[in-house]
Here is the input.
Amino acid sequence: KYSGDFAALQDSIYSFKDSVYFNPLIINTKATASDTQINHRVRSGETLSHIAYRYG
Here is the structure.
């Protein structure tokens, strides 16, 4: 019943308040890490959470 009306108005239906419902994402493209490379040798008993805590 309504499929013909939908097909005729499809563009306006999809663009209705698209900025309200689909906010554009702003992605920060700058790298936050420093340029120096850090190497870590995992020792017995170390966990990933301890290593992550150490390096921030």
Remarks:
- The two ends are 59 Å apart (CA to CA).
- Residues 1-34 form one domain.
